[in-house]
Amino acid sequence: IGIATAATTSFKLDNGLKVILLPDHRSPIVHIQMWYKIGSGYEPNGITGISHALEHMMFNGTTKFPKYIESLSKLGNTNTNASTYVDWTYYKQTVPKSNLEKVLELEADRMQNLRFEEKTFKNEMAAVLEERKMRVDDSPISLARERFHAAAFVSNPYHHPVIGWEGDIKQYTIEDAKAWYNKWYAPNNAILVIGGDFQQQQIKNL
Q1: What are phi and psi of 156, to 5 degrees?
Q2: How far is the C-alpha of 193 from the C-alpha of 4, rounded, in Å?
Q3: pLDDT of residue 162
Q4: Positive or negative, the Cα torsion across 196, 197, 198, 200?
Q5: Which of 84, 122, 182, 190 lies at a 20 to 30 A Cα distance from 47?
Q6: What pairing do the DSSP bridges indicate for beta strands 190-196 and 81-84?
Q7: Which of the four pLDDT bands, split at 50, 70 and 90, describes residue 2?
Q8: Cβ(10)–Cβ(124) under 8 Å?
Q9: How far is CA 181 from CA 38, 100, 110, 163, in A?
Q10: Is 194 in contact with 19 (CB distance < 8 Å)?
Q11: Would you call 95 helix, strand, or coil by DSSP?
Q12: Residue 20 β-bridge partners
């Protein structure tokens, strides 16, 4: 089956944000990904897994948009998710093309105005601990992989698991997460990727 493809184009804004575009006009939707050049490979001892912890916090809204997930749902989003690895963290959404501008507004706002509330932070860290238990501690394959990496990368940040060591997760403070956010979540450390039904000049204007 032949699939029509188009070459990507890219440009950079004055604030350092790189934008990569892949037009595809077969369906009136757009897929948006925001990539940050930060992951577990950047983390020092004591706060391993903080990049992944911050990924959880990024869905808790801002003062302007206090209910982030609900705001996306109202825009017809069908594909909200995120992932963290050793060198990157990214967030994705898929919406009708008519709501592209609003999604970009949501992304721009949470890049600089994320809310950090103690109760929410504690709830999210409890969720991270449960995720570690389910995906690592209760999985012989994952435990073996974690121990292999720890042995292979003795004096390298890749020594640490992406989700972090349990002891570190338990002792994070909200200030740790806020400091990590302020250090790495900025336009000059991000790449915006958009694929779908749009015109390039429209994206530059937005």
Answers
A1: -130, 145
A2: 19
A3: 96
A4: positive
A5: 190
A6: unpaired
A7: very low
A8: no
A9: 10, 25, 10, 17
A10: yes
A11: strand
A12: 10, 193
pTM (two decimals): 0.92
Distance from C-alpha of 91 to C-alpha of 23, rounded to nearest angstrom: 19
The 10 Å CB-count burial string (b at 16+, else e) for 34-48 is bbbebbbbebeeebb
> In a 10 Å sphere around its CB, with 0-12 CB exposed, 13-18 middle and 19+ buried, how is residue 14 labelled?
exposed
Known catalytic membership, residue 55: yes
Q: Side chain identity at 127, as an amino acid letter?
A: A
What is the tens place of the pLDDT at every residue in 32-74?
999 999 999 999 999 999 999 999 999 999 999 999 999 999 9
Supply 3's token pair: 């699939």
Q: Which of 43, 55, 124, 146 is catalytic?
A: 55
pLDDT at 79: 84
The one-character DSSP state at 136 is I
d(CA 16, CA 190): 8
C-beta pairs of 73-79 under 8 Å, 24+ apart in sequence: 75/99, 75/102, 75/103, 77/103, 79/31
Residue 33, classed as helix, strand or coil, is strand
Of 134, 109, 118, 132, give the one whose Cα is nearest residue 172. 118
